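Predict the assembly for these two chains.
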Amino acid sequence: MAPIDRIPEDDWTDQDLLTKDEAGERLDVEITAVTGELDRLRAAGIGPLEQDEAGLLTRRLEAMQWVRASLRA
Amino acid sequence: MPLQPWMKLISVDDHLIEHPRVWQDRLPTKYKEIGPRIVEQPLGEGQPNAQMWVYEDRIYPYIGLNAVAGKKPEEYGLEPLRYDDMIPGCYDPKARLADMDIDGVEAMMCFPSFPRFCGTVFLEAEDKELALACVQAYNDFVLDEWCAAGPGRLIPIVILPLWDAQAAVREIHRTAAKGAKGISFPDLPHALGLPSVHTDYWDPVFSAVEETGMPLCQHFGSGGASAIPQIAPDAPFAVMINLMGTNSMHATADWVFSGALHKHPKLKIGLSEGGVGWIPYIIERADYVWRKHRFYQNINQEVRPSELFKKHFHGCFIEDDFGVANRHIIGVDRITWECDYPHSDSFWPASRKRAAEAFENVPDDEVHQIVELNARRLYNLPAPAEKPAAAGVVS
């Protein structure tokens, strides 16, 4: 069984997958950004509109933290 | 804020990595030993085994390799070589949906990986009966397992037995009946040794495609490594990456000067990952060529290429500021959006944020067309949910 050295008709790139490390780094950046947004909202005082926005941001933040933790596991 | 919270992002170009049992779970018993399966391949002392696909007697060392083209095998090794090395969203649809939620993406359509973008790995098969069973097994995996994990969010694109037009017709109807929404088709079939779109080989296939209403999705590069552009062997890989979109230009030129779109007036074509900024140039050029040179060639004498483009084509982009700026020349209704997860080109987990930046100066109604409505029309997806009353009128 001979390995194929170069795939003769490959699709050019093209897995070029996000690695776990890069995905983790990107999540860290986004977690920091969303945490900052939430802090700013809370500091400005939360009315009904801001409450909706804060709720969405909080859910997204928690989801990102969960995925980030799973990448470390 | 042109990208409104109620607009649903529909990405028309993403990718999945097939899990190790996709074919082993579905092939007839007689084919399991030679059908695609994952084997453990020792890499050397102190290194974990790599996992590789084996199909018939060929090894395909690319379950998760980054940028495999242009690399020699000895350069492999810093890349995901095992499923455990990948982010789970590559191969687990539930993890994919969680990653889409984080990314603000409502729905996506995924191209294959091991079979290549449109199943051309099965062209290499010794046993074409097995190859057909492999195509059907992949399509059943996409329809019954991958997309079933997220109905309405993971949109099924299927592949065809490209070496047999009649078998392809049967597979189109079989998968349409099971809920397929698009068909992956090589951008440059002749570069794979298949008949070009200028022949009549594909007529029964195109007729079946018209009958089912599904678009042909042509991912750039699906015509294989021997397709244009012809890159100098010693050129940096950047040259190839830079020129990838020219494959979509070539495919478009083939279509508009072939008879296929005249014989198949309902054919719809989605050009994937090639960007859209090039469209005004190549269409203007095609009209010029048609105007000056049609008289002595066997090409349609009545319909300008630009009319064919407006009727049959959609492009998509992930990052194309020039294309967005020229959207009215391209046609706002011809443009769709993609996020290319899980490739490193994607902006995950900030695709929605990046889209909001890209559309900063675009009116709401045009943004809505590009990120959602055009894809719903092209792929026959359900109508969008009603927008909030306070959101105003969007055409």
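Residues 18-72 of chain A form one domain. Chain A is about 70% helix and 0% strand.
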